[in-house]
Every structure is written in structure tokens, then in C-alpha cells.
Automatic annotation (TrEMBL):
SUPFAM superfamilies: NIF3 (NGG1p interacting factor 3)-like (SSF102705). This is Nif3-like dinuclear metal center hexameric protein. The keyword ATP-binding does not apply. Keywords: Metal-binding. Gene3D superfamilies: NIF3 (NGG1p interacting factor 3)-like. The keyword Flavoprotein does not apply. It comes from Pseudoalteromonas aurantia. Belongs to the GTP cyclohydrolase I type 2/NIF3 family.
Length: 250
């Protein structure tokens, strides 16, 4: 498939122009004109690029790409080595950040909900394109039971702060670094909040506002959207797609 057609498919599917983001969504580094063999992964690290080169991929599709707001615009050091590897091997790099978080079927939040038996009921934020989601557990669980479920499914023991001492029925979540939404969840009287990371103040917010909190890892909570996107592209359009999980304990 021509790269231009591939871009159109992804733009129609993920609607990147509908949400403000911290990095450009779509084609970030231009490579081959034809897309055939795709590698998907969470982050466009050197390890992922090297693995894609070994597989002979012409396209890499990630959640965390390059050119974030606030970072140095110079192409030096680590960034230079990564981009040199892409250009030398004529590999396209596509990155989709928030559009992949919020997609109602393929997105990180939607995929995490399926894995952990959470039922989405709407956005945590008011208005369209809420990055965080709220809903319910299909089966109410104690904090210990839910933590065990997270550990089993994501293969990652979560950080837990559970001041309520009651079963969890309502829950809000945001994959990745969404710990700042805990206060909004508490304001809405939600039982628990799940995300990838925690900050120092997050635990105080949980304790003082009486909301159970779970941090299950930025990488661990965001493996599944990009994997689902690749599987969709393979199924619908016949692409040769390989998901590569470069482990990250954060």
C-alpha cells in the first residue's frame, strides 16, 4: 500500500486532528513510499528500531514517538542515533499518542478495560475526547482482589493505596502517566482510580480524599492499544504486522 493511503487510513481511524496533543501525531520520520511490513511497539526506542531493522520492516508504528513539546529541537546524541537508523534503513515512523489512548475500541483505555473487566460509562472529564474514563467493575472486588487481578493480567505488581476498606464498584482509569486525574475522580465520588504512574502527592490525595488508588506501570498499561491497532491493520488490510514488546519497568 502507498504510504499516502496508509496515512489516510490511520487519520480516518484515529482522528488525530480532533485532539490537542504534546507531540505530532502521524508520520514523524519519512521512509519507504510503500508500506508492507509493520512493526508495532509502545515506544520508538533504539531497541525497537534495531528489532524492526532485523525483521526487514519498512514501517514502525508506536504510541510514544518523537518531537515532544518542551524537548530540545536539536537532533543530537540519542535522538540523532535513532533517526539515523530510521533514515539509513528507509523506515517510516508513525506515532499516535492521545488519539490512541482515547479510541473507543482500539485505544489503550478501551483495551485495558477489556483485560480487567471494567465497563466504561463515559469520560471522566466534561466535554468530548476525555482522556480519562469512568465506569464500573463488572464484579465488585476488594482492593486486594483487584490488585491481584492486575498483577495476574498485566504481569506487573501494582502500587496500591487503599484507604476505603470496602469493595470497589465504581472506577476511573487512564493508562500511562495519568495520576493527575485522581482528584477529579475523587470529586465525583468514584471508589477507585487506576493509572500507570504515581507522583509523591498522589498517595496523599488518595488517603485524604478516601479513594483507592492503583498504579500498574506506564508501559504495562499502554502495551495493548498499539497491539490492537496492529492486529486491526493486519486483519482489515492484510499487512504483515509484528508487535514487539520492549520491556520497561516504569
Amino acid at each position: 500500500m502507498k504510504r499516502s493511503e496508509f496515512i489516510h487510513i490511520l487519520s480516518q481511524l484515529l482522528q488525530p486532528s480532533a485532539i490537542k496533543d504534546f507531540a505530532p501525531n502521524g508520520l514523524q520520520v519519512e521512509g519507504a513510499e510503500t508500506v508492507h511490513k509493520i512493526v508495532t511497539g509502545v515506544t520508538a526506542s533504539q531497541a525497537l528500531i534495531d528489532a524492526a531493522i532485523k525483521l526487514g520492516a519498512d514501517t514502525i508504528l508506536v504510541h510514544h514517538g518523537y518531537f515532544w513539546k518542551g524537548e530540545s529541537p536539536t537532533i543530537t546524541g540519542m535522538k540523532k542515533r535513532r533517526i539515523t537508523s530510521l533514515l539509513t534503513n528507509d523506515i517510516n515512523l508513525f506515532g499516535y499518542h492521545l488519539p490512541l489512548d482515547i479510541h473507543p475500541e482500539l485505544g489503550n483505555n478501551a483495551q485495558l478495560a477489556k483485560l480487567l473487566d471494567m465497563r466504561p460509562e463515559g469520560g471522566l472529564e466534561s466535554g468530548a475526547n476525555s482522556v480519562a474514563v469512568k465506569g464500573r467493575l463488572h464484579t465488585p472486588l476488594t482492593a486486594d482482589e483487584f490488585a491481584q487481578k492486575i498483577a495476574q493480567v498485566l504481569e506487573r505488581k501494582p502500587l496500591v493505596c487503599a484507604p476505603r476498606g470496602k469493595k470497589i464498584e465504581t472506577i476511573a482509569w487512564c493508562t500511562g502517566g495519568g495520576q493527575g486525574y485522581i482528584d477529579l475522580a475523587a470529586e465525583q465520588g468514584i471508589d477507585a482510580y487506576l493509572t500507570g504512574e504515581a507522583s509523591e502527592q498522589t498517595i496523599h490525595s488518595a488517603r485524604e480524599q478516601g479513594i483507592d488508588f492503583f498504579a500498574a506501570g506506564h508501559h504495562a498499561t499502554e502495551r495493548y492499544g498499539i497491539k490492537a491497532l496492529g492486529e486491526f491493520l493486519a486483519g482489515e488490510y492484510g499487512f504483515d504486522v509484528t508487535f514487539i514488546d520492549i520491556d520497561n519497568p516504569v
